[in-house]
Amino acid sequence: MVAAVVAARLPVRDNSYLWHVRAGSLQIERGEVLTVDPFSFTALGRPWRTQSWLADLLYGWADSIWSLQTVTPLVLAGALVMVGAIGLRVYRSVPVALPAAIGTIWVMWLTIGYFTPRPVLFSLALLAVFLVAADDDRLRWALPLIMWVWASVHGGFIIGLGYLVLDGLRRRDRSRLVDIGAATAVTLVTAHGWGTWQVVLKFLGSSGELDLIVEWLTPDLFSIEHFPFALALVALMLGAVNGRITKRDLWVVLPFLIFAFTANRAVPVAALVLAPWFVSGLARASQPGSVPSARQSAFNAGVLAAVLVVPWVVPLRGGLDQELFGVEAVRQLGPGRAFHDDAVGGYLIYQQWPDRLVYIDDRAELYEEEFADFVNARAAVPGWEKVFDRFDLSQALLKVSDPLGEVLTAAGWVETYRDERFLVLMEGDG
């Protein structure tokens, strides 16, 4: 709860959320989902679908009323749904308070980096709810409904279908075929229809561009961010040795363990799926829960009250992270096209579109080779001039640390603005 509230009250640092807002407001204005890029001069008119069209509609509508104040309830709602669902799931698997609490905190640690207003948070929350429904025969009727919302919010819905397949093999339950068929069918009746799958397939085929984004790089499981997952491997091995993880469980456990090693973004997904097996390695499933004393219950109530109240009275900054997005530097840009990075691009879409089209933002699957060109140009790799000539760029907003700044200065460009993080350069007359 504390982590969710604190994350919800921090300044917006996610440029994806900013362009999602504008995509939502544009869909509301047009009365249809987007199928081509309207935001950049780099890929203007190129086929591009708003995979998260339903979340974007929510963003656009809420922003029109509350602006950036929308972020706090969005993040808080998504985080609490995810944590609540996963807490229920692990407690059902091992109804012992301490291991269940440890399992929930373990998932929180591995997912807290995604407590932002991006659609990925809602995808993680929907995955947690989907897993609860999939594991309970009384709730399996809800799987198609959850899947329809999920496929309208984020491409991560494919993880849910994969889980159903693997869990069906684990259970040797042919009735799972009905769940799989129904859940797959509803993805074809979202606003994009078959286009929902086209987005996913194109995204999976953009591995070269995704390799340029940190969250899609291979995870370092010994980093502070992911070290708890490495520790969980020990718990999983203990569970296997003690017979609490069976050979049939390996149909689910092994694929998601392997999946966790593919990308930073895969670690929280794998954690949500593997949490019950992690918890089973911490406690005996037959161990009974203890009934707390009256004094312990009073203490627990006091702790809960503090957890609910304290985060709201801590003076935390909201709004937009002015430094990350170079807000003051953006004000110094002249009219016309500019070279800038993906974070600034998201802010420009939110703040200045349609008056200004952007050079780049973080939609790597849209820009394809242009994204690699941007990375190379920012690093002043020989050939950067071709990017500037191709798009007729006469100004650049760069980080002070970007090598391209020194190269442009040496080429006669004039510095018109500088602060601790950003500088603006204009092409010289000569």
Q: Span between N and C termini?
A: 59 Å
Bin the strand percentage: under 5%
Q: Count the E strands.
A: 3
Specify Rg, calculated over alpha carbons: 24 Å
SSE order in H/E notation? HHHHHHHHHHHHHHHHHHHHEHEE
- SS field, number of helical segments: 21
Strand order of the largest sheet: 1-3-2
- Low-confidence spans: 285-290
Helicity level, as a percent range?
55-70%
Task: Provide key terms for this protein.
21 helices; 430 residues; 3 strands; single chain; mainly alpha; 57% helix; three-stranded antiparallel beta sheet
Describe the structure.
The protein is mainly α. Among the domains are: 86-280, no CATH class; 327-426, no CATH class. It has helices at 2-9, 15-30, 53-66, 71-93, 97-111, 119-134, 143-151, 157-171, 176-186, 195-204, 207-210, 227-241, 250-260, 266-280, 294-313, 327-331, 342-352, 364-367, 369-378, 384-390, 403-410; strands at 395-399, 414-418, 422-426. A 3-stranded antiparallel β-sheet has the order 1-3-2, with helices on one face. It is elongated. The model is unreliable at 285-290 (pLDDT under 50).
